[in-house]
Amino acid sequence: xxxxxxxxxxxxxxxxxxxxxxxxxxxxxxxxxxxxxxxxxxxxxxxxxxxxxxxxxxxxxxxxxxxxxxxxxxxxxxxxxxxxxxxxxxxxxxxxxxxxx
Length: 101
Hints:
There is one protein chain. By secondary structure, the chain is of the alpha+beta class. The protein is built from three helices and four strands, in the order H-E-E-H-E-E-H. The protein has helices at residues 8-15, 37-54, 82-94; strands at 22-24, 27-33, 59-62, 66-71. Strand 1 (22-24) and strand 2 (27-33) form a beta hairpin. The chain is globular, with a radius of gyration of 13 Å. It starts with 7 loop residues before the first helix and ends in a 7-residue tail after the last helix. The mean pLDDT is 93.
C-alpha cells in the first residue's frame, strides 16, 4: 500500500502536538537525554520493538546519555508521512520523563 507524503500544513499541525520534535526538511528529529548510558540503551531496545510492531524503522543513534532519532518514510521518497508521526507518538509514550505514563 502506498503511503502519501504529508503537506507542510499537515506536518506543522502534527508537530505542534510533539514537543521536543522538529521537522528538518523531510525528516522528523528528536534527541532524548537520559540519566545513564544503560537507560539510553534500554530506550533504544524499546524503540526497536515499536519499530518492528509498526514495520517502520528510523535512524536511531545511541550516545553516552542520549538517543537521537531521525524519522522519514523511505518508501514515500524520503518524505514525512503519517507513519513517521505515529512512530514519534509511540516513542513519546514510552520515553522516560516524556509523554503519557
